[in-house]
């Protein structure tokens, strides 16, 4: 098991701060928030600079989170998507980071499911081919309010993509809030289908209202409505023993001292893992 700090939990930090906090809070690895990584690179630093920083603090880069809107199909937008994939894969290789997260969003909303699956899978396959040349794998995250919001839909996309370097991230809130996935379904997965776990809590979206992720997910583990112990048990039933990352998407908690956020998120998760 690799206990990993999630860079989204410390939203208002930067790469240097995240690496230091991960070490001081006792984490083994860092799930790098891609916004921070790209900002770091755009300011003239290199992936090699970050690799040295990680090494000095004995922190492993375990995932870059995330390449978003992977369902883009217009030629110009799709070309940009593949260019973004190439850039992130190059950074991941230098960082010895094995995984990049893929997030399908709402660009194909309203289309028939078979079309959504086919178009998204085509992009995932092409991204996976880029990643293969860099030694990078990809974890797909279903998003609760998007057309691809369940475990079964994500597995269909992965199957159609037909690439060996694509798997799942089990995000407790997104799967639970999407209301089409149960812990029992997760428990039936093979361990090698899971590349990571996002340990998080929250509440469900009130019917008829706009999705506001900051309000729905602004809870420390144990303070929301998810039966976390059932989701933890489901993941463990698969035999998975890889990356566990406490993800806190909460503007309220982002105003805490960043080190305290990291410590508290880890402590909350470890209560359930023990």
What does it look like?
- The protein is an alpha/beta fold and 274 residues long.
- The protein has helices at 15-24, 34-42, 47-56, 75-95, 113-134, 151-161, 172-178, 183-187, 213-216, 228-237, 251-254, 258-273, and strands spanning 2-6, 29-33, 60-68, 99-103, 137-140, 166-171, 194-199, 243-246.
- The protein has one domain: Divalent-metal-dependent TIM barrel enzymes (TIM Barrel), CATH 3.20.20.150.
- It is built from twelve helices and eight strands.
- It is globular.
- 48% of the residues are buried.
Give a brief rundown of this model.
With 274 residues, this protein is an alpha/beta fold.
- Helix run count: 12
CATH fold type = TIM Barrel
**What would you report as the Rg, rounded to the nearest angstrom?**
18 Å
Cα distance, first to last residue?
A: 12 Å
Report the principal-axis shape. Answer: globular
**What would you call the structural class?**
alpha/beta
Keywords:
274 residues; alpha/beta; TIM Barrel; eight-stranded parallel beta barrel; globular
Q: How do the strands and helices of this protein lay out in sequence?
A:
Layout lengths: L1 E5 L8 H10 L4 E5 H9 L4 H10 L3 E9 L6 H21 L3 E5 L9 H22 L2 E4 L10 H11 L4 E6 H7 L4 H5 L6 E6 L13 H4 L11 H10 L5 E4 L4 H4 L3 H16 L1
Parallel strand pairs: 1-2, 1-8, 2-3, 3-4, 4-5, 5-6, 6-7, 7-8
């Amino acid at each position: 098991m690799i206990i990993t700090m999630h860079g989204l939990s410390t939203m208002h930090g930067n790469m240097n701060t995240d690496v230091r906090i991960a070490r001081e809070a006792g984490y083994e690895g860092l799930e790098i928030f891609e916004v921070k990584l790209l900002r770091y690179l755009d300011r003239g630093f290199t992936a090699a600079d970050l690799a040295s920083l990680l090494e000095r603090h004995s922190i492993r880069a375990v995932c870059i989170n995330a390449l978003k809107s992977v369902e883009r199909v217009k030629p110009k937008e799709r070309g940009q998507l593949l260019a973004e994939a190439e850039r992130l894969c190059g950074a991941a290789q230098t960082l010895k980071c094995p995984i990049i997260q893929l997030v399908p969003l709402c660009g194909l909303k309203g289309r028939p499911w078979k079309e959504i699956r086919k178009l998204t899978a085509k992009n995932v396959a092409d991204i996976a081919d880029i990643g293969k040349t860099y030694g990078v794998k990809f974890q797909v995250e279903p998003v609760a309010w998007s057309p691809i919001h369940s475990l079964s839909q994500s597995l269909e996309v992965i199957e159609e993509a037909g690439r060996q370097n694509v798997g799942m991230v089990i995000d407790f809130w997104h799967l639970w809030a999407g209301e089409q996935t149960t812990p029992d379904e997760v428990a039936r997965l093979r361990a090698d289908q899971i590349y990571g776990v996002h340990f998080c809590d929250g509440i469900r979206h009130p019917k008829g209202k706009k999705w506001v992720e900051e309000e729905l997910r602004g809870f420390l583990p144990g303070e929301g409505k998810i039966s976390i112990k059932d989701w933890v048990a489901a993941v463990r039933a698969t035999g998975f023993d890889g990356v566990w990352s406490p993800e806190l998407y909460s503007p309220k908690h982002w105003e805490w001292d960043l080190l305290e956020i990291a410590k508290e998120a880890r402590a909350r998760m470890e209560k359930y893992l023990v």
